[in-house]
């Protein structure tokens, strides 16, 4: 295993601000850009090889998550990049492939989100859910199931928790950075 989790691919190297924590057991390859105060936890695999990955400020990608993209084709000239907004929590062992995730979203453990899916701001996706290709999740709701279905509107308490979850991981990554 390489001692450096950041690997170039075809002239693209991950762009990582000094305020970001990337665990040494993770692998980030190619065209990946992280926002300030983001965190990448153990065993994350992110491949920005055939398209780009963008991860917003204060977003945390938890242990064992896989992030990937779809290449550009004649049928789909833009392909499917992976765009993750700000203040997002991606739970352990999630898989995000060529989708768009808004701001203040909680993606539960083991969730799979497929190509072309769009998750608006202020959404919670329950653990183990499957978001099919091209599915659009509307802001302000809890979604559950495989395939995913709208369960109910988020409570005020749940909405307030979304940025709190991101803040908790910013504090934790600061503790980890202080140990280096």
UniProtKB/TrEMBL annotation:
Name assigned to this protein: Carbonic anhydrase, family 3
Organism listed in the record: Photobacterium marinum
